[in-house]
Each structure stands twice: as structure tokens, then as C-alpha cells.
Write a structure and sequence with these properties.
This protein has helices at 4-8, 18-24, 36-50, 60-68, 110-122, 138-144, 167-178, and strands at residues 14-15, 30-33, 55-58, 75-78, 81-82, 85-86, 97-103, 107-108, 126-132, 150-155, 159-164, 181-182. By secondary structure, the chain is of the alpha/beta class.
């Protein structure tokens, strides 16, 4: 559960410079390297084996791939795109409470961060459909995720990343967010 100070981080839109976005291209957790199919299959196997208390998936391909390999994320955060192109797959959103948010590329706006944190805290199936870009919304999700939970996201052309929730991963997210520029 995020603290009041974690929520305060998102009181204003946060802009991510090119330098900071470059830093975010390094995995925030454990990279499961490989092509899309093999890395997502191994990520799903690891999730099933570890039995996390909650699974959050960020990205259309990651969300869809986990479902295809037998893992239904509790929270999915998607924008209908894959590597800046329209996502050609289909999401089965039956059983999910659907929330729509706007979040421009390179920014985290307060309403989007709040929707993500609320969805993770709700501890029920929520799909967040982002008009804009969802990638950076992994950061508020990490802050909201309790120990024992896992966040999965795709690392383009490298594989799938699993971020296991802990105070250490939340602190890493806070450090990155502190480098963003409030606007």
C-alpha cells in the first residue's frame, strides 16, 4: 500500500527527460531474456511457480502473453499499442473492471498514477486502458504493490522483466521518480 508521501509524488504531472527515459530502458527487475514467445512463457512459469499475492502486467503484449500462458494478471495496464504500432492482438477483459485514463508519452499525470495505485490497492481484477502511453505507469504500480506481488513488463527486443515487490524495488522507483521534472 503506497504511503501518503508516495501518492504526493504524483500531485503534479511528472516529465521524464530523454536521459531519464534512457535509464528506464534498463530493467527494473529480473530480465528473462529471449524472444517474445520464450521469455513470456518462462515469465509465466516463474509466476505460477512463485505464487505471488498479486500480478500486475504493463503492456499489451505482456498482458496478452501471460494470459496465453495461463496467468491471469490481477491488474493490466494497456494502451492498444506495441512498439508504437497498433497492437494486433485481442484482450479478453471479461471479469475485469475497466477504467479509462489519459497519459501522454513521456509523462505521468496525477489522474493516471492515482488510477493505477487505486487499482493495485483494490485487490480485484482491473484493466486500465490508457489513451496515450502506459510504459511509465509501471512506476506508480511498483509503489502500490505489496511485498509478495510481482509486476511484469516487456523490455523491447530483450525479453520480459519481472519486478518482485519489496521495499528495495519501491525505493528504486522513488529514486527514478525523484529525477523526473514536475510540470
Amino acid at each position: 500500500m503506497p504511503s501518503k508521501s508516495d501518492r504526493q509524488i504524483f500531485s503534479r504531472p511528472l516529465y521524464f527527460s530523454e536521459e531519464l527515459k534512457e535509464r528506464l530502458r534498463q530493467p527494473l527487475g529480473t530480465l528473462i531474456a529471449g524472444d517474445l514467445e520464450s521469455s513470456s512463457k518462462r515469465a509465466a512459469e516463474e509466476i505460477k511457480r512463485s505464487k505471488p499475492t498479486m500480478v500486475v502486467a504493463v503492456g499489451d503484449v505482456t498482458s496478452s502473453s501471460l494470459v496465453n500462458h495461463g496467468v491471469k494478471p490481477d491488474v493490466i495496464i494497456i494502451d492498444g499499442r506495441y512498439e508504437r504500432r497498433v497492437f494486433g492482438g485481442k484482450h479478453e477483459l471479461g471479469g475485469y473492471e475497466v477504467r479509462n485514463v489519459k497519459n501522454p508519452a513521456g509523462v505521468i499525470i496525477p489522474e493516471a498514477a492515482e488510477a493505477v495505485m487505486d487499482a493495485v490497492e483494490a485487490r480485484r481484477s482491473v484493466a486500465i486502458l490508457v489513451d496515450g502511453e502506459e510504459d511509465l505507469l509501471a512506476l506508480p504500480a511498483i509503489l502500490a504493490l505489496s511485498d509478495g506481488g510481482v509486476l511484469a513488463y516487456g523490455q523491447p527486443k530483450k525479453g520480459c522483466v519481472l519486478v518482485w515487490a519489496s521495499e528495495k524495488t519501491r525505493e528504486k522507483a522513488r529514486e527514478l521518480l525523484a529525477r523526473a521534472t514536475p510540470v
